Amino acid sequence: MALIIATALAAGVAPAALGGATALAAPTQVTGAAAASSGTVVQQGGPLVVPSGEEGPVTTRVKVAQYGATSERLQARLLLPSIEYNAGDEDHSFDTSIAATCAVNGGAFQPCPWGSGDWGSVAVLPTTTTVNDLTYDIRLDASSSARKYGTVTATLEVLSEEGVVHARGPVSFTFVQGTPEADLRTTVLARDKTGVLWQYPSSGHADKPLRARQRIGGGWNAYTSLTTLTYRSAAGEGDLVARDKDGVLWYYEGSGNPDAPFKPRVRVGGGWNAYTAITGRNRGLVARDKAGVLWEYAPTHRDDSVIFYPRRMVGGGWNAYTAITGQGAGHQAMARDTSGVLWSYGYPYAPSGGPYGPRVKVGGGWNAYNALAWTQKLDGESYNDLLARDGSGRLWLYKTVYRDNVSIPTTRKQIGWGWEIYNAIL
């Protein structure tokens, strides 16, 4: 499919994100000698590199020299070519992933509203009274989804209200991967041996996936189990549950504040000391009892303290595993057996009566690790990654591939050391 994303001083309706629906009249289409450009357009410094993410806006300056123009008000437009995109992209719309402001001749920046017209998606540049030389400053602020556009070369035209083109030339933008916005980056939580809970926001970059840790608070040694319920983001989103030493389960809802990411706890109920393992699954829980029977607690999706439906038995034999880690925001799980073999459980597409489909063998040697935990979007490249800590305190990131209805860890990369100070990682 082709996405037409032309920017122009012209036409169309501006989305609400850029100031509401504003109808703009398209310039007259002129052909022949009247449409011929007699001026020049020069982009200073070459193509503008635009980080797609939270870096903020960047600006390019365009110098326009005109010849033979009469004194009148001038319009300007950027015309972009068709751009091919993958239909599976998160965002197919140029005008929703790029915010633009523009200035002419050193004036104040103002929104360049996007709309649609004969050229596709369009943006409006400020008008001005004709002078021999013009300066346009074009400032773009791109979201993470804009990186898919790559290099885009537009045509800047300066024309009269009657549609006579006085200058025409190329203006290029190169969209590169920046730092994903906070709500697109996850966090890793770790509790140290003194009971302090820390969060490591992901960076969104493969070379150094974790940022410096941030202290959440103390007193978390009161809990014998910590489990993620939902996707956690660096924007302070994400829920978890914690079981205390008396077997009471507590619910911590994400606050949306990265500096204090959890709201005050809410009591779920007692009796959870019956379980030897608790892990998340798609906003709910699975729990293994002392006899090796696995139970599922499906989420109610309610806003009150009734967090889960009554438990439902999955099946026995789960004492074969020494570690079970599930996806709080997803449907999959990894389980390591007593011989060190790792197994992957996926979503049961065929009706099975349980939370998981048939297991798939990953491989042996996983007894080298004393902690396993799922993570998502840690380096901006994958949704289903696995963290593993070895006996020396080194932290490893396993990239995964989706095969046979499950996620399979493949290559690993060390992303930290000194993690032996933590007694829980999630």
TrEMBL record:
InterPro entries: Tachylectin2. The keyword Signal applies. It comes from the Bacteria. The keyword Cytoplasm does not apply. It holds the Pfam family Tachylectin. Residues 1-25 form the signal peptide. Gene3D superfamilies: Tachylectin 2. Keywords: Signal. Residues 214-369 form the Tachylectin domain. This is Tachylectin-related carbohydrate-binding protein.
